[in-house]
Design brief:
Iron uptake system protein EfeO; two-stranded antiparallel sheet; 2 strands; 275 residues; globular; mainly alpha; A middle domain of Talin 1; signal
C-alpha cells in the first residue's frame, strides 16, 4: 500500500488541531495583522516565482536537455522550500510536488511517485528526460494549482508563527541526513531556502518580540548568524557545493546550530499568545 506523503511537522499538526477544535484558525491579534499581511505578500511572491521557474525547468525537460534541467533543479525548488509551512497545508499538492520514493510501495518504479524528486531521479540516475515527460507536465499543473490555492488562503496566525521553528526542525530532524535530494546532492540549496523562510517570519515578528523580551532577540539573532556562518562555508559560484563534500563532523556542526535555533523559535507561539 502506498504510504501517503504527509509531512507531520509540528506546524501542520498545530493547524489540524486548531481546525478540529475551533472550526477555524485562531483570529490574529491586532499586533499580528501587519506581519501576517507582509508574510502573505512574501509567500505570494515566492509562489509566483515558483511558477515562473517551474515553467523554465519543465521546458528544459520537454526539450530533452538533461544538463540544463539539472542546472535548474535546485534553484527552482528554493521558492517552494521557503514557503513550505504554507504549502504543507495542502497535503494533496505537497505530496504530488515533493514526495520521496520512500513514500511508495515500489519506490522509484512506482507510477504514483511524481513531482520534483521523481524528475530528479530521472535526471541524475536515469540520465534522461524521456521517462518523466508526463510527470513534468503534471508538476507544472500542480505548482500552478498551489499558487492559486495559496492566493485564496487566509493564513492561520499559529501556522505562520510556528513555521519559523518548523522549517528549522525539519532540517534538523530529516533533511540533515541527506534523504531529500538523494540523487542530485543539492541538499544545501534546500537548507538555505528553509533558513531564509524561517528568518523572514522571525524578522516580521521581531518588533513585537523585542517589546516583550529584548534579550531573546539578541540571542536569536546570534543563533541565526551562527547558522548562516556555517552555510556560508559551503557556498560556491552563486550556489552550494555538493552535499557529499560535507563530512560527518560538518553535518554534526550544522545540525547542532540548526537545533539550537529551532529551540529558540519554538517559543515564539507562546510569546505571542498562540499556544
Amino acid at each position: 500500500m502506498v504510504a501517503f506523503h504527509l509531512k507531520t511537522t509540528a506546524l501542520a499538526l498545530a493547524f489540524a488541531a486548531g481546525m478540529a477544535t475551533q472550526g477555524m484558525a485562531a483570529e490574529p491579534t491586532l499586533d499580528l495583522v501587519g506581519p501576517l499581511s507582509e508574510y502573505k505578500l512574501y509567500v505570494a511572491e515566492n509562489t509566483a516565482q515558483l511558477v515562473t521557474d517551474t515553467e523554465a525547468f519543465v521546458a528544459a525537460i520537454k526539450a530533452g536537455d538533461v544538463e540544463k534541467a539539472k542546472s535548474l533543479f535546485a534553484p527552482t525548488r528554493m521558492s517552494y522550500e521557503r514557503i513550505e509551512p504554507i504549502a504543507e497545508l495542502f497535503s494533496d499538492l505537497d505530496g504530488a510536488i515533493d514526495a520521496r520514493a520512500d513514500d511508495y510501495e515500489k519506490a522509484e518504479a512506482d507510477e504514483a511517485f511524481t513531482g520534483f524528486h521523481r524528475i530528479e531521479y530521472a535526471l541524475w540516475v536515469e540520465s534522461s528526460t524521456d521517462p518523466v515527460q508526463g510527470y513534468a507536465d503534471q508538476l507544472l499543473t500542480d505548482v500552478k494549482a498551489l499558487d492559486a490555492r495559496i492566493n485564496e488562503l487566509t493564513f492561520p496566525p499559529e501556522v505562520v508563527v510556528g513555521g519559523a521553528a518548523a522549517l528549522m526542525e525539519e532540517v534538523a530532524a530529516t533533511k540533515i541526513s541527506g534523504e531529500e535530494d538523494r540523487y542530485s546532492r543539492t541538499d544545501l540549496w534546500d537548507f538555505d531556502a528553509n533558513f531564509a523562510g524561517s528568518e523572514k517570519i522571525y524578522d516580521l515578528l521581531k518588533p513585537l518580540i523585542a517589546e516583550k523580551d529584548p534579550a531573546f532577540v539578541t540571542k536569536t539573532d546570534a543563533n541565526f548568524k551562527a547558522v548562516d556562518d556555517v552555510l556560508a562555508k559551503y557556498r560556491k559560484d552563486g550556489g552550494y557545493v555538493s552535499y557529499v563534500e560535507l563530512t560527518d563532523a560538518d553535518r554534526t556542526v550544522l545540525s547542532t546550530r540548526v537545533n539550537t535555533l529551532a529551540e529558540d523559535l519554538s517559543t515564539l507561539r507562546g510569546m505571542l499568545g498562540l499556544n
